[in-house]
Amino acid sequence: MKILIVSLRYLGDCLLAAALAPAIKKKLPDAQVDLLTFKDNRGILEGISAIDNVIGVERHPNKFRQALDHIRSWNSYDWALSTMNSTRCTFYSWSSAKHQVMPQTFNKTKDLWIHLLISKFVPWAPGHMLDTFTALAEPVVGSIPPLKPVAPDAPLSDDLSQLLTPLGDYVACHPCSRYQDKNWSKNEWRKLFSKILDSGKDICLTGGPSAFEHDYIRDISDGFPSDKVVSIAGKVSFGQTGRIIRNARAFLGVDTATAHVAAATGTPSFFIFGPTPVSAWGPSPKEGRPAQFSGLLDLQTVLNVTIIRQDQLKPCDGCSNHRCAHFDPPELSRCMQNIPAEKVWRALSNAL
């Protein structure tokens, strides 16, 4: 059997969708399981052996390019499992497979055309996104246990190993999101770094290659000993980032795709979260979620994952705006800027 997973959203969504592959392979060991996603998402799937082929498509293709994609993949698969019910996911699923399954649409009358093209729909789960993705597999392989997350992995190069040589026992920190409202106070980061170093642990900073992240990391790390605080931002792949987090004493970061990588490695992971609904998008622990994350708690731990939020959650919980009406400048969010370093340290210090 040939099965295609379709995930046309962000990096973190793509990694969560990849959790379907090992679950399907466990039921159908001889199945071919491929994953279709945006070309710039492919790196986060590095080293995930349950995926046979990663198919990359353009994020913003012209109509001709998109038509070629559909023709090339026409009816190549038995099933397409789409993690979203968007227009593009619908067309890729319909053209690629004889049978399709996706989460139900919200307006059946308006989306009648989708219902004419797609074989089966599953309801959105009330909890985590992985619960909805679990339901996608049922029409194909029958009932399966709740999905466990997967993480990329790749060996470190000699140059990278040499760069990390000065570090002893370290905390891996991913301090920066491309969405500024998800970023924590720079001053609080610096306070926390001082506490980590005073405890005898070193710091490895991870991040992407953008100028914004480079400047952000420079601002929060400037002045600390260079043999104790090392930045590898922009120098490693997602798989290598996964390896570095696996080797860390603990991980600390904000709400990014790397948060899902860290949680899936099994390393004790601490996440500073703002308005994102944690019940749906909280990073899933390596061994799954014996309990759901609660939107009512400012501090909660499930297995290797701890989520830290501001003390007063309302009216911020579940806010979907990237501009905050309660903070100046509005690009930053009150619910992130109000979290003190001392609160984060109290949680993190338990793992050091």
TrEMBL record:
GO terms for molecular function: ADP-heptose-lipopolysaccharide heptosyltransferase activity. It comes from the Bacteria. GO terms for cellular component: cytosol. Keywords: Glycosyltransferase, Transferase. GO terms for biological process: lipopolysaccharide core region biosynthetic process. PANTHER family: LIPOPOLYSACCHARIDE 1,2-N-ACETYLGLUCOSAMINETRANSFERASE-RELATED (PTHR30160:SF1), TETRAACYLDISACCHARIDE 4'-KINASE-RELATED (PTHR30160). This is Glycosyltransferase family 9 protein. It comes from Sutterella seckii.
